[in-house]
Amino acid sequence: MNGKTVRDCAHEIPVLMECDVLVVGGGPAGMAAAVGAAQAGANTVIMEQYGCLGGNITLSAVEPPSWYRQEKTTMPGGVGTEIEKRMIALDAAVRTSFRPSVGYSYDTEVFKYMADQMIKDYRITPLYHCLGTIPYMQGHTVCGVITESKSGRTAVLAKRVIDCTGDGDIMARAGAPYEKGSPENGQLSAGTLKFFLTNVDIPKLEAAMDEDPMSRDPYVHKLFYKTFQKAINAGEKPLENSLNTMYYTPMPPHDINVNLSTYDRELDGTDVLSLTRSEIKLRKEVMKVIKRFHQYGNEEGLGKAKLRNFAMTVGVRETRRLVSEHRITGREILEGERFEDTVGIFPIYMDGENIKKIPYTDEYFQIPFRIIVPQKVENLLCAGRCVSCTRDAVPTTRQMDFCMVTGQAAGVASALSIQQETSSRSVSICSVQQELERQGVRVF
Ligand SMILES: Cc1cc2nc3c(=O)[nH]c(=O)nc-3n(C[C@H](O)[C@H](O)[C@H](O)COP(=O)(O)OP(=O)(O)OC[C@H]3O[C@@H](n4cnc5c(N)ncnc54)[C@H](O)[C@@H]3O)c2cc1C
Prior knowledge:
This protein is α+β, with helices and mostly antiparallel strands and 444 residues long. It has two domains: 15-185 and 319-438, 3-Layer(bba) Sandwich (FAD/NAD(P)-binding domain), CATH 3.50.50.60; 195-310, no CATH class. Helix content is 30%, strand content 22%. It is built from 13 helices and 19 strands. Strand 6 (130-138) and strand 7 (141-149) form a beta hairpin. The termini are far apart. It binds flavin-adenine dinucleotide (FAD).
């Protein structure tokens, strides 16, 4: 922002549609929220700014929601399990590269089709290419969302709204308290632009990974690093915006999906200028990474690799976090805390830059309803990576499977609160728990 302002003239805003529950944002949390609400009997709309559902899965090509999963891991069930079954049935899920792991990586293109079908099966109304800008409020109550799209500025009215934008766009503009990044200096987790390569010798690449058990170890997480190591040994400086490792999913016969190589520590996903800079910076970085593969990656099958495509957008790992009555903490997660208002469980698993906790045992913690309920605002719930937590909990709360549990709980709570003629925050927790169990979620 440059500090100047202009005055907008007041418009009459046409109503595009009305519904019981409006879910803003169609990522893992939003899809689960919409399915949860629809299964609980609500007439539901899912609004998404791009042309497909999936969020980071499809927009940023993040394909492995459950790479961490081990033989004994206790899984939360619900929509995440249903998605996995649908992806396996479409022959669009492969085992991840880590050993041991019983988790899957998804084909992020087929995911778009799967998501369309799933939404249709639950009679949810999709609204794509539609940006939710600000909440439409009466006093402190959210009654819908103002949107911008090719149809112009319109309103979608709803009895309940769920913010699944990842960034908490709606809750922040509704006036709910939130925080962003590190409490010390505001630092956010880095963004990554994923990309796909073709012309890769996959058998050679897999053999290079197999030679070194560290490459595939989920805890060591050293991933594929040999090509980068050779460049350093040859006296090359490490690339400025890259890690010297790479995670990939093979897409035989010649393609791979590349994760982690590019890293932008300056990215702020709530700042349009920062997003613009990051896309340009990281596209340039990807080209440098590919050049390194050509120079040093022949033995690993990368010597003739060609760029197939960049992910649709830079992947954002962290922005706003709701501050609600309870902020779940890293300690509560690691100690397997139990809560009376539990709306789901999650394995004791963390994946952050400085922490890895792989769920080799069946231990888990419970997720309290309070972390999705904003303060000061009525009939709005907030699910996904912007739930209320301390920053040391983010390595868990940003995980897609976790986001889906909070989404499904928000969907069910919103639908039931309409039937109970009470606000989203005052819904009967016991009824939410029962409905979630009916929907296949493990609650206790
Ligand atoms: C490179 C990278 C690698 C990762 N690796 C893993 C991994 O291996 N495993 C894992 O579990 N997680 C991983 N994550 C984290 C995970 O992808 C995210 O934390 C998770 O997708 C968050 O889900 P969400 O539904 O809350 O938000 P998102 O996935 O961000 O979805 C939000 C959706 O809302 C839409 N939206 C946003 N604002 C608006 C608006 N105002 N109006 C309309 N629509 C809007 C967006 O377009 C998007 O579709 C990774 C993230 C990145 C960036």
